[in-house]
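Weekly structure sync, notes
Attendees: PL (lead), two postdocs, one rotation student
Agenda item 3: pending single-chain targets
PL asked that the sequence for the first pending target be pasted directly into the notes so everyone works from the same version. It is reproduced below exactly as submitted, 73 residues in total.
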Amino acid sequence: MSNTLAVTKEYEKIQKASVMIADDILFKNISQMIEYRKKVAIDIIKNQDEEINKALRNVYERSEWHLKQMLGL
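Predicted structure, written out during the meeting:
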């Protein structure tokens, strides 16, 4: 039984480490998406061309959808 317990504990450690790595990757992706949306929003504000502005708004809305997917909303 001791061997089984040791294997189980080792498996739990590996599983917890995997979750921590996955969380780190997810948080980095969320941060990058928020930064990207910020840059697109600044470009929308700075831009005077209506066609480009429309395209940028579509990009902004699409990035919002991706962000919601990452957050599970």
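Discussion points:
- The chain is about 90% helix and 0% strand.
- Residues 2-71 form one domain.
Action: rotation student to compare against the earlier draft before next sync.
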